[in-house]
Amino acid sequence: MKPRIQCALTPHRPHGQHHPSALTASFITAGEQGWLAPLPGALLAAALVTGSLFVRAERRHPHPLLSLTLFRSRELRGATGVGMIFNLVLYGTLLCLSFYLQQARHASVLATGLLLLPSSVFTGAGSLLIGLISLAMPAMTAAVVGAAGAEHAGVASGVLNAARQSGGALGVAVLGSLLGRGHALSLHVPLLVATAGYLIAIALAWTTIRGGRERRVRS
Q: Rounded distance, CA 45 to CA 23, Å?
């Protein structure tokens, strides 16, 4: 057990964990400076480089922090993708609605909160309804853990949680950058992207998670 812990803590491992923050920062700065500005491009390049270094290191390391063989499972990839998209759209939409109501419609903080309150009810009710196609969080967790097996259940659930948190951060950055600035705020593009995201998540859940479950039942 000691050699394994020593390998996992070696200081020579590339720090590819920085690529999500660089990716998020690239979208945030793109919304402020424009998509063709140098800084967003540099941050995006840094995200791609550090991400590729992380993948390369995990493939070569005898005791990887994240075994990439987990992603051979189509069901696990699908559930992870759905979790990321779900949080991306949810948190990004809440941010856009809040900014739009306060800056474009000049609503107070209290009024904005009250106007957004019904969305929490619809989100909860919607999660129960669309749980039939595995968009609800318990269904996604069950799909990931079931696909990974008992040996890798902890790592797999951590992957799903990391994907969801990354999705939330990216949603705030991406949809926020599409909202516009000042009096030119518009919800058209962010909500169009959000709708497309939900449709992609539904299709992904139906073809990977639900499809994988049905194949296991038949076998």
A: 9
